[in-house]
Amino acid sequence: MTTETFYCGCPVDLEQRTFDRAACDYVPVNDNDRAKRTEAEHILPAFWIAHFHPGPSCWEKDEACGSARECCLKNDDRFKRAHNDLVNLTPAIGELNNVRSNLTYAIVPGEERLFGSCDFETDSDLRITEPREDVRGDIARVYFYMGETYDLEFPDELRTLLDEWDGTDPISPAEVDRNERIRGVQGTANDFVSQ
């Protein structure tokens, strides 16, 4: 079983939380600790788990509980389950996890590559990130699962993009394998992949 970073496809050593930079021609912008390790990336960012929900948002910083994320984790069981759901977590290069932050997925005009051959573009002014083509359907199906499982509502423009990505990037054997490994660990998995 080969595991790779989500955005660049670099081979990963999960125990060491490292990846093979040369194998995917990843070139960091800032060669710091985060550029040398993998992190658990929320495909649907925690910020949006709190904000795409139709009820009141738990995303409020409070001295009693800490940061907005810490407050959500302490005070909102739905958010905590969604935040920790393995379907929504994947290994990513720490630097890209940081750059992506809570940016929305979209198509970034142009193809300026800042990270070597890694097909990952971002536009901080537009607040968007464009992932490589062969994970776009994976992203869509994770969003569909998260929406259905945790009562999240996506803006029409995002939903249209996700529908397109689902259609242009079909379910792969690696996606099915990952889904079944998740089922083995947490007892549930993404039915949008199982179908």
Automatic annotation (TrEMBL):
Pfam families of this UniProt entry?
Answer: Endonuclease_1 (PF04231)
Q: Which GO MF terms are attached to this record?
A: endonuclease activity; hydrolase activity
Q: What keywords are annotated for this sequence in UniProt?
A: Endonuclease, Hydrolase, Nuclease, Plasmid
Family named by the database record: Belongs to the EndA/NucM nuclease family.
**Protein known as:** Endonuclease
Q: List the source organism.
A: Yoonia rhodophyticola
